[in-house]
Design goal:
The protein is α/β, with parallel strands linked by helices. Helix content is about 30%, strand content about 25%. Bound molecules: flavin-adenine dinucleotide.
């Protein structure tokens, strides 16, 4: 079993979901003693090979081209398709046994734009949004959420020699980097004539941060039963707007219809890894914390000093959120 990871960058660094893919591939490849090959495309990539190596890459191919800095799906596909074909050929994939190669990538909006087309051209199945990839009797088993996240299903792709899969951001979490590891690094500068492309990016419009997919949000304002009702949820949306944060909450407030069901966090909802998690009126049940306990900074507002969520807080505020949030909004207004 061989693994190729297609990584991507985020604000000038390897994206965290890409590193999760590298670690997932490293753990799976270790069982068969195979190296992990990583393809990273973009501009100014030199410093990133060591980071990929530290998380488990054995070979890193850096593909640099100006068109990738603001290119759309077509640019990426034109550049990556021949590289992947060559990588598959290099691996000497023996198609008499199955499956032999897994191409793993983060489940990001960018990958979603072009990876399905690559899979189609490779005539490979694409299993999206996996929570985990396992091997069982030399067979790849993809674990993914179903029924709106309330069940997990296992998928196999019988007869497929190459399988593409995307890994849900935050599903695995990042392990400790081994900064002494080094990878073999290749550099490619593809020869492209961009005039022939049909797509051209004119503007990039920022998403509404409040409704951005929670799994991709850097800041989250989350509410629990303590918000008291729809009027309290309105406060969350106001604060979300002011802080440019996505709005989410606990399952119980989604079950009551105060929040859309795709916006609750926890075991049966979304797993999130924001830089800031502001929890308002949330007690901290394990079913909720399992979905947010990898947040970088957690601020908890609760009027009960014994609320379990305080144990995860970097900053805890004991008080009534209906007084604290309006006061905070007034400060932010100023
Ligand atoms: C099978 C199963 C799966 C589940 N999956 C999930 C899941 O994925 N996600 C999830 O979230 N839950 C899930 N739950 C539910 C979970 O067990 C908890 O019931 C839920 O997380 C509690 O939500 P809460 O914190 O909003 O409410 P509560 O536990 O009722 O907490 C409300 C908190 O608000 C505080 N509060 C009240 N008024 C104020 C105020 N004015 N100001 C400040 N603080 C105030 C209270 O002190 C309290 O701590 C699941 C349950 C089961 C059985």
């Amino acid at each position: 079993m061989q693994f190729i990871v297609i990584a991507e960058t985020d604000h000038g660094a390897v994206s965290l979901p890409s590193l999760e893919c590298v670690e997932e591939a490293r753990d799976l490849a270790a069982a068969s003693g195979q190296p992990v090959r990583v393809l990273l495309a973009g501009t100014a990539l030199s410093a990133m090979a060591d980071v990929l190596a530290a998380h488990g890459a054995d070979t890193v191919t850096l593909i640099e081209h100006e068109a990738l800095s603001d290119g759309g799906a077509e640019h990426w596909l034109s550049i990556m398709e021949p590289v992947v074909h060559e990588a598959v050929a290099d691996l000497g994939v023996d198609t008499s046994s199955e499956p032999v190669l897994c191409i793993l990538a983060p489940d990001s909006s960018h990958m979603r734009a072009w990876l399905p087309r690559l899979a189609l051209r490779l005539r490979a199945p694409l299993v999206s949004h996996c929570l985990q990839v396992q091997t069982n009797d030399e067979r790849l088993v993809f674990v993914r959420p179903t029924h709106g996240g309330s069940r997990h299903e296992q998928m196999v792709c019988p007869g497929a020699h190459v399988v593409c899969a995307t890994l849900a951001p935050g599903a695995r979490g990042l392990g400790v980097a081994d900064t002494h590891r080094r990878a073999r690094v290749n550099r490619l500068t593809p020869n492209l004539s961009t005039e022939t492309f049909h797509e051209r990016r004119l503007h990039t419009l920022p998403p509404d941060p409040r409704t951005v997919d929670l799994r991709e949000a850097d800041r989250i304002v989350a509410g629990g039963l303590g918000v008291g009702g729809p009027a309290g949820v309105e406060l969350l949306w106001k604060l979300g707007t002011r802080l440019e944060a996505a709005v989410g909450g606990t399952r119980v407030i989604a079950d009551r219809g105060w929040l859309p069901t795709d916006r609750f966090i926890g075991t049966t909802g979304k797993t999130v890894t924001p830089k800031l998690y502001l929890a308002l009126g949330i007690s901290g049940a394990s079913q909720h914390t399992s979905g947010m306990n990898r947040s970088e900074t957690v601020i908890v507002v609760n009027n009960d000093r014994t609320a379990p969520l305080f144990s995860l807080a970097d900053l805890g505020i004991i008080g009534d959120l209906h007084e604290i949030v309006p006061a905070l909004l007034a400060c932010l207004e100023e």
